[in-house]
Amino acid sequence: MSLLANTAVLLGKEVRTEYRSRELLTTTFVFILIVIVLFSFAFDPTSDESRRFAPGLLWLAILFASSLMLQPCFLREQHNDTLSALRLSVSDPFAIFLAKLAANTLFLLLTELLLLPLFAVMYNAQVIPVLHWLLLVLFLASLGISIAGTALSAISAQARMRELLLPVLLLPLLAPILVVSAEVTRALLDRAPVVRWKGIGFIGVFDVVFLTALWLFGEYLLEE
Amino acid sequence: MTRPSFAPIGLRFENIDKRYGGLLALRGVSLSIAPGECVVFAGRNGSGKTTLLRIAARLVRPSRGSLSFSGKSGGPEESAVRPGFVAHATMVYDELSAEENLLLFAKLQDVPHPENRVETLLQEVGLSERRSSLVRTFSRGMRQRVAIARALLHEPAILLFDEPATGLDPQGVAWLAEAIRRLRDSGRTILMSLHGESEISSLGTRAIRLDAGSVAADTRTGATFRSILTFADA
Known about the structure:
Number of domains of chain B: 2
Oligomer: heterodimer
Number of domains of chain A: 1
Helix content of chain B: 25-40%
Order of helices and strands of chain B: EEEHEEHHHEHEEEH
Structural class of chain A: mainly alpha
Strand content of chain B: 25-35%
Largest interface: A-B, 23 and 25 residues
Radius of gyration of chain A: 18 Å
Distance between the termini of chain B: 36 Å
Strand content of chain A: under 5%
Shape of chain B: globular
Number of helices of chain B: 6
CATH superfamily of the largest domain in chain B: P-loop containing nucleotide triphosphate hydrolases
Number of helices of chain A: 9
CATH topology of the largest domain in chain B: Rossmann fold
């Protein structure tokens, strides 16, 4: 069976199990919601200050929420040793990673899309005129977070201090992409919106580099 | 079980070492297992039984040595050999139904006509009536039936059982013993790790005792066979 066919079957499984448990989506949604609401009280929403800080707060909330979402990614597979069953079944172990990162990207994007209107209202952000650019940034950055996070989740799931290890590894690794994403978002939400192509390009390169690394070394991450 | 559509395959472990950090789990294990043999591995906890079976499943890479497969018509491609593996952990998803689990793994393994194969296996393990129930609602015995059905999806020539009877009640053990007997009689090569003598261990045609990661005894004969199986409880 081809890599993509295996990936599609596994992605279907991820979506189905999440639909039944709603574990990841609920946790992530509630977490981002709380952060956005709490921070909104710290700023006057009509001010320029709010416009400057809001994108950074948005990406900070996404970062913490994604670390919550990524933690159970491979831990779930250890519960009944289903990871071994998957490794015995797929012809290419990269399919396991592809399905996981596709599911994580999908869930993260879904959460972001649900919260974007709330973010726009609470921080007085003019998202409608630049929505297509904002969606591009959200997609590319969510993909990057998922690629790096899925790889680290596979590593941390086998470690002794697994709950601590993922955030400790994830935060420094994602720092560049988050800084750039916040910067690109800030420019888009400015009074005179600007598309920072360099920033978008950087996020794209980050995605490609980490995806290639995962493709090359992913098999070793799954070994016992 | 259904009529087998596989060529019998044997295994050869050559001078296998497995090291986990500072711990040497297996040391210099060399074994040749003929196609169709039913081998029982006995030994105390930590003797290396599980590690050896996981190496046979190619879930664990040996630190030294090699594993090869042999068939009646020459050695098959290593990558083409995909053993069926049943362990104490069921290796199926609690959030999916029995049917969904089996269909998932059948599709991943590229089993022809997956729906038909799943239907056949559900009937064989006696779970047709509960096909749509989530696995998390199953008893331990029923979960183990799903696990066996999952391992048999692609009609493997080699089956590995790692303490499959743990947590099963006497009826569950009896059902499992009967299932393994039928699989053995169908010509499959079976490797199983067990604790002590039981209904299941009596199905073995060869007993191997592992001690501290090495082969301590290996026999096919009656009295020695029993002593190997009971050693773990001694």
